[in-house]
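In response to a reviewer's request, we include the raw inputs and outputs for one of the modeled complexes. The two entities were modeled together in a single run.
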Amino acid sequence: MRTDLRRQILWIAAFGTAYAVATAFAQNSYYQLIMTVVPVWGVMGLAWNLLSGYSGFVSFGHAAFFGLGAYFVALAQIKWGLSPWLGIPGAGVIGALAGLLVGVPTFRLRGHYFALAMLAYPLALLYVFEWLGYQELTLPMERTNPIAYMQFEDHRIYAWLALALMVGAMVLTSLVERSRFGMSLVAIKQDEAAAEAAGIRTLTWKLRAITLSGAMAGIAGGFYAVVLLVVTPPAVFGMLVSAQALIVTMFGGVGTLWGPVIGSVVLVPLSEFLHARLGNIIPGIQGVVYGIAIVVVTLLAPEGIFWKSKDVLRRRATLGMPKPADAAKSAVVTELPVRRNEHAAVMLEAHNVSKAFGGLKAVQDVSIQVFKGEILGIIGPNGAGKTTFFNLLNGFISPDQGRVVLEGQDIAGKKPYEICDAGVGRTFQVVRPFRRMTVLENVIVGAYVHTPSDRAARETAEDALARVGLNDVAQTLAGSLSNKQLRLLEIARALAGKPKVLLLDETLAGLGSSEVEEVITLVRKLAAQGMTIVIIEHTMQAMVRLVDRFIVLNGGAVLAQGQPADVTRDPAVIDAYLGKRWRVANA
Amino acid sequence: MNGPQLVENFLQALTAGLLTGAIYGLMCVGLSVIFGVMRVINFAQGDFMMLGMYVAYYAFGLLVANTVFGPTTAPYIAAVLAGPIIFIAGILVHKFLVSRVTGMRGSALESEGHYAQLILTLGIALILQNGGLFVFGSAPVSIATPLSSNAWAVGPLYRDVIEVFVNQGQTVAAVIAVIAVAGFVLLMNRSRLGKSLRAAADNPEAAIYMGIDVERAHRLAFGFGVAMTAIGGGLLASGGPFQPYVGLEYVIVMYAGVVLGGLGSVSGAFFGGLTIGLVQQLSTLFLPNQLQNTAIFVGFLIIILLRPQGLFGRAMRRT
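The model returned the following structure tokens for the whole complex.
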């Protein structure tokens, strides 16, 4: 990871040098302006990308931060004589504050709602600034000491300053991308619930992202004011500002450092060129051509130029390479489950837990005890409330009443990441890997909760992968794994959080019979190492050989509990769940 | 300001709000069909509205020049004509552009498809706006109708002071908008077509298994959606001057109305639009004119943050 970062920084340095040299040759003030505006929109795209590209929370409102930054720099110089050298960092602070203020209420929303709510902020501000009488602010010329006020005769200096800002933003993005900050955001983007269950403090990371992103956008806006010297509400708060940030990033590639850079280097000069060459001849033609360019790229490379070219290169590179072999050999289960001490300490306890959705009583008054080191099976027909019960245990939903106690500590109503931190790991009925991350990265995300350093997280993750036998596919993308491997991946991700209790939700579903045996062996090995396990399952046959004790749920309530042999002979259980065929077959 | 004067101002703003709100409602219904059925944020919706305005403008010119209709009825006939014309435009845009990144093909792209939809509709919006600029010119135009400068006086309602003026042009436009919405709601609820649209909205995959052509349902939803909004635009065209960039102002108004009414609810969207019209007009009573739109956006933010399911929508359990 370190060497990877060093290489990335070298690329950034090479790009920065090339751009700086190219700028030196720009003699005409028109080209100098373009060379200045490209990095400004690059920074804006990087700001947008940091929040929306990595976390997936699409913002249509970055103009709010940009505009506040621009107005801060302009007003500070006009009213207090503050130099932009101080004003621009101030614009960053304003942008960060605005980001935080916007984030706190708006992150209650998701998906389209978040995007639309973000749209409203800059537009509301636009009219407020018009009403305040700031329809047009002009930055005063400083004749006595222009350099102290960021005013230069040689306009190339603006381009170099803008470039410095963009290089700074790029380095910042690289650092974020490779740390737990970036990894957490990407995990949130791919599956927010799974990230939270893996111990990621999703709201905290999202707020950090929008604060940093707001700061970058504020700085871009502040610098833009200095370059253009005139600030008007539509120019800095308008839809087109937010749209430009989106367009350059999506054009180049979302969720990658180079996306916004490619987008702004290609599109900004293109639109300026069209504007200058065609705008006078046929008004509007430049916008049409620009729009067509965007539409065509979207249709040909919907994921952006960066990802498209990367995919093409990768496909070429992997042609003819053998597929990674499935390393885990199937083991035959011969030994019977070891009977564990019934009087072990209680690890996890639910007291009279109930949850209703409207009129549907999904879980009613359920009380269970899970003993340290045992494998407890929860069975029941569809709709019995098994998964809802798990969701209550790991904090996805909080119970209407009742308590959930982990080693004497009440955890009911806590957030999933807090419960994960307290020691409850879980997997999902429908597997929820972070599909665009590698197997190892998936598990690293799960390891963050108990590891202070990123290096330790990686080691913990590698260890967890070894425990489930997936180390051979560590660098494979999770999206290309088989069902069994995905199930094992989820177990590894949960194990990486060093849980005290592991909740497995239908881990055996959809597996072939030899695969079932493999997973059973693994689960029993984990239990033998001292892990406490609660497993939901449909396949009774396998469960009888796996668990120490059963709890049968029906209609949201506990129907029976006890040893496998007793439970499977209980007439009530047979009627509710196993059916007559079971009775006939096992009579 | 004395009491009766206040009441008169209030009633005047209320009337204006209801009349513009009805047209906003119609526009919101159009957007709601697209958003509800396809789950796509269409940034170009405002620009289809703008196209509707220009279609109405030119149709009005043709109708009057050929003395098919007089200047009193022609604006409304022209506005309604914008519907089928923009419907065809919408179908074509969906078939050749939007469908490439939405629906089943969009979901194959996973989360990246979501981005592709946004940037595609932004690109279409840019093309329409700027294309409009060089086809229609940048000078504002409007449809002149005698009705819009005439008003019915209602009152005096209280002794001889409270008198409310109801603009005739706006009233006719609002009535047409309500009729169009009612017709569309009937179509959605009663017809086979409406049912297939709703099924495709509810669960596209299940709808496919039931033999519904979801691609076609989306295409029709897009066509109907832009057509309804275009009629709304055509009706607004006789109310004041407009230019090719007019769409931008209305995109957020439409989304505010749709979210207010609850995502996917067609009749909810109408009442959402109506509410936006009322908020806009009533806010003029105590806010400076420039802050009218700020009032809409702030109201929109408050509602989306407190009741994301919409004022008129039912709370849904998220899974």
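As requested, we also summarize the result in words. Residues 29-55 of chain A form the longest helix (27 residues). Chain A is about 60% helix and 10% strand.
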